[in-house]
Amino acid sequence: MSDLRFIIAIDQGTTSSRAILFDEAGTILAQQSAEFPQHFPADGWVEHDPEDIWQTTVDLTSTMVAEARSRGSLPIAIGITNQRETAVIWDRATGKPIHNAIVWQDRRTADICAVMKKAGKEAMVTKKTGLLLDPYFTATKLSWILDEVDGARDRASAGELCFGTVDSFLIWRLTGGTMHVTDATNASRTSLYNIHENNWDDDLLDLFGVPREGLPEVLDCAAEFGVCDGALFDAELPIRGVAGDQQAAAIGQGCFTPGALKSTYGTGCFVIINTGDEAVASKNKLLTTVGYRLDGKTTYALEGSIFVSGAIVQWLRDGMKLIRSAGETEAIAAAQAGNNGVYMVPALTGLGAPHWAPNSRGAIYGITRDTGPADFVRAALESVAYQTNDLFTAIAGDGIPVSVVRVDGGMTANDWLMQFLADIIGLPVDRPVVRETTALGAAMLALMQSDPSITLDDLAARWQRDASFTPSMDDTARRELVAGWNLAMNRTLIEG
Questions:
Q1: How far apart are CA 392 and CA 271, in angstroms?
Q2: Are strands 77-82 and 239-244 parallel, antiparallel or unpaired?
Q3: What distance in Å separates the CA atoms of residue 171 and residue 265, rounded to the nearest whole number?
Q4: Residue closest to 241 by CA, chosen among 220, 216, 215
Q5: Statement: residue 373 has pLDDT above 90
């Protein structure tokens, strides 16, 4: 074996799983992904089969281990990043899920959240967690499964069930059931974790009806999360880095100083701003969350969550059959002289920040006899920029200055969209050389745990710009476009 040091990042996302082999400089050596089915049992319900998540993860990781072997060295560690708020409950003895995973996009518990809001519970939840009462978060999803699956509550109280987010399920399986752990970023998205005291909170557990017995231990983002069962990859590989996907992306983007900001464009869009040691309380419905926790010290962040960005392109492809691939959208949008007054509000699973309207549904405005498929495609892309601008308006309202935006995620390959984004938000948009920043963040956490001499400054210095998009749109044109969007959004909003 050689002296080369490789790290595998498992990036378990909403529509696909991915595994990437990095070297210690953060260079991608090999990667592979696999989509898995989405399940929609009822209006606003979104589920995954945890076995699909597991099988794609194991298959892809096996491929990356083989790739590392072919290059002369086993990986020194595995890092995991994951779709965050998605809830999984499984049998402690067998590891088998008792129900499909309920995905972060799922809105089935909106009525439960509304009842809690009416009872005046949101203030307590927000004070302890930094989050709002919304079906987006894990707690009500776990409670729903425990209520709906026969005997689940009794079994949970007896310690027969494990539950958590996707990372904890994967770690349990990868370590052969020896480790039931998560990290502070994933824990902070459950509505059960006190982000100020760094523990599962009794008041929250009582409110949501979630037994402590089934919850994982919460570790730092760089820590010893266990060792993979040797039978899986013919090697006992340590898991040494874990972070929720958006926090991992911020780490991969080098957002280590207060005010540093990244915006990720995957299935949804997520903006994270580092706020340092201070857990800043937003006045504009942004979320206060854990940015990362290292050596027992928490760095906080503000976050804006948009539920549908890349998912709207997937809908154009799979639902409406208007395109064959996401790559077609750039040329279609660029060929249009303008948006022809067409606006699409992609509230396919309700609206996230800063509106938090779970009962809103998608809508298209401005359709005339001349409207065609190209207008829908352009309106879908434009909606991503408009929703981002709504977040930046909230950020400005919280008094946080932003000078540049670092972007990542699959949609950032679309140059037309990146330029339109810069025009609408009125800020430069920087795209990095390594666009798989979510996986990179997980890999770098695992590397730091493997080699304590590596610092956050070392990681920040590795960031490289691929392209920068500078605002060029006339202010009058920008204001007119945003005004049209605001009218469409106001017509769509259904709060509750």
A1: 9
A2: parallel
A3: 26
A4: 220
A5: yes
The answer, yes or no, to whether residue 496 has pLDDT greater than 60, is: no
Three-class SS of 39-58: ECCCCCCCEECHHHHHHHHH
Torsion, Cα of 242, 246, 248, 254 (10° steps): -160
In this prediction, residues 355-366 reach a mean pLDDT of 89
Quick one: tokens of 345? 């509000």
Helix axes 373-397, 415-425, angle to 10 degrees: 40
Token pair belonging to 197: 């005291």
Q: How far is residue 401's CA from residue 415's CA, in Å, rounded to a whole number?
A: 25
Contacts with 201 (C-beta within 8 Å, 6 or more apart), sequence order: 128, 129, 192, 193, 194
Structure letter (DSSP) for residue 317: I
Domains in the chain, start-ordered, CATH in brackets? Answer: 6-245 (3.30.420.40), 254-432+464-496 (3.30.420.40)
Please give the pLDDT value at position 419: 97
Q: Which tokens hold the place of 302?
A: 């503000």
> How many residues can be counted in the chain?
496
Q: What separation in angstroms does the CA of 375 have from each of 222, 334, 339, 343, 365?
A: 46, 11, 6, 9, 11
Contact 39, 107 (CB under 8 A): no
Q: What pLDDT was estimated at residue 118?
A: 94
Q: Specify which residues 363 forms β-bridges with.
A: 345
What pLDDT, on a 0 to 100 scale, did the predictor assign at position 495?
A: 59
Q: Which two tokens stand for residue 169?
A: 């399920």
Return all residues near 351 (Cβ < 8 A) that are at least 6 apart. 307, 357, 358, 360, 492, 493
Q: Whole-prediction pTM value?
A: 0.88
- What does the pLDDT read at residue 177? 95
Q: Tell me the β-bridge partners of 463.
A: none
pLDDT confidence bin for 221, thresholds 50/70/90: very high
pLDDT at 382: 96
> What confidence score (pLDDT) does residue 1 get?
44
The Cα 466–Cα 139 span in angstroms is 39
Residue 338 has a pLDDT of 92
Helix (H) or strand (E) holding 355: none
Q: How far does CA 389 lie from the centroid of its chain?
A: 19
The single-letter code of the amino acid at 282 is S
